[in-house]
């Protein structure tokens, strides 16, 4: 479902990664590994179409991608339920069928009427991840999805990923430094580090 071929990407005008290639079949995940600064975020953003590639190609079904960064994207003045409806609406789903499931899987049912701004950091992160369950996107690019989560919540996320998203035919590429406990191959990006003198495009929008 996702094919990356000879991809080269850049940040701040400098090439970061070069000649990255892999496939991810429907129902599968790929874990991106590598030290801080190697280019995991850059690769995820490039694959999600948020910045241009320097070279190479990325293919997946049209309008199926979603990118989730470190930021939760929570609207403080909306309740938990309203936040999920808002994000579903942004993706063209005015009546999201997965809303109750997302609330349940991310242990948010009891918090459904709470304003987003009153949630703890971990609860906000759970709500940020629950968004993924209501937007109807099959190809997920996830950047450190478990930041701020305790062990119980990491397992909630891993279970949702495995039993809902992947079991439903989705794919996920996940940059993480922790063990999510899911059955997925890992790709260490260290060997793909680009020569910094190779040049690159401008990405001022993400400075
Ligand atoms: N705006 C910018 N201008 C210049 N260089 C940048 C900019 N943003 C990131 N970089 C550099 O690009 C490289 C790749 O950064 P990136 O955030 O993709 O790495 P990462 O593997 O996700 O790191 P981490 O594990 O710390 O999150 C790093 O060397 C970083 O310093």
From TrEMBL:
The keyword ATP-binding is annotated on this UniProt entry: yes
Cross-referenced SMART domains: AAA (SM00382)
GO molecular function annotations of the record: ATP binding; ATP hydrolysis activity; transmembrane transporter activity
InterPro entries hit by this protein: AAA+_ATPase, ABC_transporter-like_ATP-bd, ABC_transptr_haem_export_CcmA, P-loop_NTPase
Residue ranges the record marks as coiled coil: none
The entry's keywords: ATP-binding, Cytochrome c-type biogenesis, Membrane, Nucleotide-binding, Translocase, Transport
One Pfam family named in its UniProt record: ABC_tran
Sequence ranges assigned to domain ABC transporter in this UniProt record: 2-205
GO terms under biological process: cytochrome complex assembly
Protein's UniProt keywords contain Translocase: yes
Protein name as it appears in the record: Heme exporter protein A
Species for this entry: Yoonia sediminilitoris
